[in-house]
Amino acid sequence: MTRRIVLLAGLTAAGLFLAWGWAQTPAKTADDEQAIRKAVEAYSAAFNKGDVAGVLAYWTADADFVDENGKLHKGREALATLFKSAAVELKGHQLKLQTKSLRFLKPDVAVEDGEAEMKGPDGTSDSNRYTAVWVKADGKWLIASARDLPSDPGEHGQRRLRELDWLVGTWTHQDDKSSVQVVGRWVLNRTFLQLETIAKVKGEELAVSQMIGWDPQNHQLRTWFFDSRGGHGEGWWTRDGNAWTVELSGVVADGRTGSSLNIWKYIDDKHCTWQATHRSVDGQPLPDVEVKYTRAAAK
Asked: Is the model's pTM score more than 0.85?
C-alpha cells in the first residue's frame, strides 16, 4: 500500500473542478505549461534523492491528498509524515512521472492528468494514473490537491504482470556446449508478456514460445508454452523477493508427461539466471539445468 501511496504522493491528484462552477477554460500559456512540466520533473528528482523537504516544497501549505483507500492527508504536517515514512520504505526506488494532458482552468489554476511509475531496485515496476491540481502562488506552481484515481477493470492484474517488466529485451547465454537466446516483449495491449527462446545444444535446436498473463479467476500469474517439437504445457508463477518460481507441467511430443520447477532470478538490469529443477518425464528424473543470461545491447 505504501508504494501506491508514494506513486500518488509523487503527484497524484484528482481534479474536482466541475463542482467549482468554472464554466470556461482560459487559454493556457506556453511559459506556464513549461513551468509545470519542469516542476513535475523536479518533483520526481527530489523524490528519487530521498529529499523529503524538496518534495514538500511543491505542495501548498493547506494541500490535501486522498489515497487509493479513501484516506485523507491534509496539510503540510500530515503530508510530511506520509512522505518521510515512504522515503524510508521505498529507498532505492525510482519515480517517473509522465504528463498525459495539461489544461488551464484559470490563468493561475491548471489540471494535470498523468501516470506515475515506480521502479524498484529489483527491476520490478508499478504504476497508476493520477490527476493533479496546480496553483500559481508568488510566481511558482504548486500542488493544491491530489487524488489517486480508481483502477480500471483488470488493472490489478496488469500491475502484477509488470513485475516481470525487467524480462523485456533480449537475453543471451553462450558457453562451450550451448547457446541460448530469450526475447521478451509485451503483446496484446500489454496484457501478456511473450518470451521466445531458441536453444542450441550440441548441434540440435529447440524453440519455445511462452505467453505469460494474469489469471483473474485464480488471482495468479499463469504461463502457457509450446515448443518446436510439438510439446506443450502450462504453469503458475509465484514470487519471493527477486526470484520467480514457475511450476510447470505438460506433454512432450511423444505423448509422455513431464514437469519442472523453473526459477527466474533478477540480478540487475544486465544479468539474470534461469534454473530448471525437479525435472522429470513420466516419473523419471532428469538433471538440473542452470543458465546465466546477459542482456544484449539494444540495437
From this structure: no
Q: Which of 3.50.50.60, 3.10.450.50, 1.10.1740.10, 3.20.20.60 is the CATH number of 2-150?
A: 3.10.450.50
Which residue stretches of the chain are H helix? 2-9, 30-48, 52-56, 76-89, 155-161
Distances (CA, A) of 194 to 174, 182, 228, 268: 22, 10, 16, 20
Q: Mind listing the pLDDT tens digit for each residue in 187-199?
A: 998 889 999 999 9
Helix (H, G, I), strand (E, B) or coil at 276: strand
Please state, in angstroms and rounded to a whole number, the distance separating the CA atoms of residues 9 and 127: 12
Pairing of strands 140-148, 59-66: parallel
DSSP 13-48: ----GGGGT----PPP-HHHHHHHHHHHHHHHHHHH
Residues 247 and 196: their CA atoms lie apart, in Å, by 19
